[in-house]
């Protein structure tokens, strides 16, 4: 590729440039022309292609890195969150609500401001952490807001407590009505509704909550700012509020209001039937993954196999260590999974599915193996979202198929102590980054925000240190990796999983100028100080979209 070097528009010098090229070279300087990287090398050689019009940024030993790529993020859902009663989704995380009493106070405030019949939507509490160490009850919700449907989601997003008004939206008025839905998904105890609804039935009930276009646009733009502040220049959107959200995100990206590049999975938060309809409509038109432009592309056809890690509600081969009688959630059967994978594979699409526990992951791997018997497509780079609990056999099989898992190490920082209790010895293969890298798997990093922390340094810290940052307890260290390896997963591997490694994910000539400046040399800082590193600058397409401070203020 040939470039006009006379002269570069923006130049970075005196830095620790983490190139993430084939040799993991560390360079000093980078030159930008338009929206492309045209030079990577030494300070001395950079001087030959700058002039008086070049903006020169002296890094002063700080890190210049490829922009981070979050391969499983929900821009609209995460942006819905707010700490007060006016938010589209009221944040009930521990920092905002330390007790059920705090949650109920917010519900009462919201009910006082909203007309009767309008939904009150909440998310974030963890019954393992709040003062009462239990779930909120249907009776408490009914008393706090008798005239409003209330949705109070656990932090994982897979378990939710609804009040009576909300349950009526799907025809559930008494315990017997739970039998209309999947086993164990509407929880009944002692012959009475508890208000607890899990996974697929919860997602279906969630579809009854109304979020306006104005709320969705505001949420997306809130996420836009959060992403830029964290050096995230691309996101793989793992699902929002169905058709309105697809349209909104496409428009915001096209108008260049939402700055990070968007790889939009075909998936709705509103459950299995809605997501299947979306995928079937896409396939019926003869379309394939990858349609779009540099800023917005249609990504995988996604579906959801099981529950979550922290409820816990994922589908595991062996019972949970802390409670052998606790059921996992399995929304798809083994053969059903294999048949659907074959259908999508034969249609030429990239496939991904939410599969957390080792039983759900086994369904996915086995399904890919069967599909490849008649139509091998390792170049499809099929995915598994979350891919939390595995073993060496599953890893070896994924490597042969070129499956690209998207993992969420940041979950450890919130829930590591609970995972140790839930999964016991299986923690040796929980978020198994070390073993996946060693097997040659292109695993990428993702936040799954709002279900997990979206801060980039939290993800990197979790990769390297594997520590519960609520208690500072270390979690099994078997799968710990180096900071340079973690950055590769967060950049190049993310680009690879959306077929874009030729244009982004590393600092090499010809690639998009999607770059970030970190506050120090992250390769040299102490491991326990990774969380303290800041993003000083975020550049997308050669344009500085975020600066933590003005150069003159430094």
From TrEMBL:
PANTHER family: IMIDAZOLONEPROPIONASE, PROTEIN LONG AFTER FAR-RED 3. InterPro entries: Amidohydro_3, Metal-dep_hydrolase_composite, Metal_Hydrolase, YtcJ-like. This is Amidohydrolase. GO terms for molecular function: hydrolase activity, acting on carbon-nitrogen (but not peptide) bonds. It comes from Sinanaerobacter chloroacetimidivorans. Residues 55-544 form the Amidohydrolase domain. It comes from the Bacteria. Pfam families: Amidohydro_3.
């Amino acid at each position: 590729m040939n470039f006009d070097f006379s002269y570069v528009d923006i130049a970075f010098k005196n830095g620790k440039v983490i190139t993430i090229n084939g040799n993991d070279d560390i360079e000093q300087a980078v030159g930008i022309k338009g929206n492309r990287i045209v030079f990577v090398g030494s300070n001395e050689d950079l001087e030959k292609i700058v002039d008086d019009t070049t903006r020169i940024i002296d890094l002063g030993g700080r890190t210049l890195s490829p922009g981070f790529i979050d391969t499983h993020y929900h821009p609209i859902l995460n942006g819905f969150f707010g700490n007060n009663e006016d938010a589209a989704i009221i944040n009930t995380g521990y920092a905002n609500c330390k007790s059920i009493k705090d949650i109920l106070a917010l519900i009462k405030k919201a009910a006082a401001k909203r007309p009767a019949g309008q939904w009150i939507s909440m998310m974030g509490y963890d019954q393992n952490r709040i003062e009462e160490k239990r779930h909120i009850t249907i009776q408490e919700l009914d008393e706090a807001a008798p005239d409003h449907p209330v949705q109070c989601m656990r932090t994982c997003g897979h378990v939710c407590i609804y009040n009576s008004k909300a349950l009526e939206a799907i025809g559930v008025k008494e315990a017997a009505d739970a039998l209309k839905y999947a086993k164990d998904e509407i929880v009944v105890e002692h012959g009475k509704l508890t208000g607890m609804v899990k996974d697929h039935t919860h997602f279906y009930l969630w579809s009854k909550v109304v979020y306006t276009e104005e709320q969705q646009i505001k949420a997306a733009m809130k996420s836009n700012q959060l992403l830029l502040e964290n050096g995230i220049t691309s996101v793989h959107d793992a699902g929002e509020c169905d058709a309105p959200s697809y349209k909104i995100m496409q428009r915001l990206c096209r108008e260049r209001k939402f700055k990070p590049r968007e790889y939009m999975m075909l998936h709705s938060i509103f459950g299995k039937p809605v997501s299947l309809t979306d995928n079937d409509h896409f396939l019926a038109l003869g379309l394939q993954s990858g349609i779009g432009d540099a800023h917005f592309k249609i990504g995988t056809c996604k579906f959801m196999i099981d529950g979550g890690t922290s409820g816990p509600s994922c589908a595991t081969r062996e019972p949970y260590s802390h409670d052998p009688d606790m059921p996992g959630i399995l929304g798809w059967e083994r053969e059903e999974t294999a048949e659907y994978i074959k259908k999508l594979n034969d249609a030429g699409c990239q496939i991904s599915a939410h599969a957390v526990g080792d039983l759900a992951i086994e369904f996915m791997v086995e399904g890919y193996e069967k599909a490849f018997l008649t139509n091998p497509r390792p170049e499809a780079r099929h995915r598994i979202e979350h891919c939390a609990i595995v073993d060496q056999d599953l890893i070896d099989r994924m490597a042969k198929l070129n499956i690209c898992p998207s993992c969420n190490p940041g979950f450890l920082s919130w829930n590591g102590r609970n995972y140790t209790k839930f999964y016991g010895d299986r923690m040796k293969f929980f978020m198994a980054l070390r073993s996946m890298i060693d097997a040659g798997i292109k695993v990428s990093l993702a936040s799954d925000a709002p279900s997990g922390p979206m801060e980039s340094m939290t993800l990197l810290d979790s990769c390297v240190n594997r520590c519960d940052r609520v208690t500072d307890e270390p979690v099994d260290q078997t799968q710990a990796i180096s900071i340079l390896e973690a950055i590769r997963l967060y950049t190049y591997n993310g680009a690879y999983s959306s077929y874009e490694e030729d244009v982004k994910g590393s600092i090499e000539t010809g690639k998009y100028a999607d770059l970030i400046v970190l506050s120090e040399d992250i390769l040299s800082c102490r491991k326990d100080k990774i969380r303290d590193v800041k993003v000083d600058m975020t550049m997308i397409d050669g344009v500085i979209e975020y600066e933590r401070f003005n150069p003159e203020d430094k």
